[in-house]
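Ticket #4471: structure output looks truncated?

Reporter: J.K.
Steps to reproduce: submitted the chain below (240 residues) through the standard prediction queue, then opened the result file.
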Amino acid sequence: MPSTRADLWRPVDTLPVHPMREIEGAIMGNGVRLRVEVGPKNHVGSDYFRITLVTDLHGPADEPVCFGLINRGAYPGFNWVEVTDFQGRFPLAGETVEVPEGIDGALVKALGRLVPPGGHLMMEYDSRHRAMTARALAQRVPPAATPLGGMMFAAQCGTWFTDWYISEGGREGARKLQGFRAVDAAHAERRGREMLDGLEAFLGRAKDCDWDVQAACIPIAQATVTALRARLAVPDGPLR
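Returned output as attached by the reporter:
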């Protein structure tokens, strides 16, 4: 996480051009909107950012809900957003509040809007708020059926996933789920059929998971299967 020194951070709406201006002030629902600040660059030239939830009733939270990095480049794979730290609980108006599921999902969708075709969204799942996703992935639940992966899929950054759960030398930091936006419709269809196969296989073996993992992930898997079958015009039944 970058320094929290105030002089290193600038409100994104004071910058003449920056990709994160697109989500400044975005409404998350329930009288909550986003305040985005941009910080220093890291060693490879990516911009640090932090996002604070601002409520109509109490104003801004006392701490950011997340920190991350954004990168832009000439090739699709060089365009990405990464959330490195997520605060599921934070102080607001003298109390500690938890990010509601609806606002969590809306925030992931907002970040997904910043990812162009061929780019990716990467989200940490080491924080306490993402504990169910961590447990589900450890029990071989497909990423798209986990709480975090389901939100990334809904944000159109879940055409396929890479689970970064092994740190080498300590430089990679927290465990992360990397979700990609499709390059084009043909790519989305090919990967969608692969994902559908994997999700339906999981539904056939979900009983092997802990009961609370089943309760959290089976409905997500079922909803994703329904969405994929509708998108791919695949009726109920075998894919082949």
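Triage note (M.O.): checked the attachment and the full token line is present. The longest helix spans residues 211-232.
Status: closed, working as intended.
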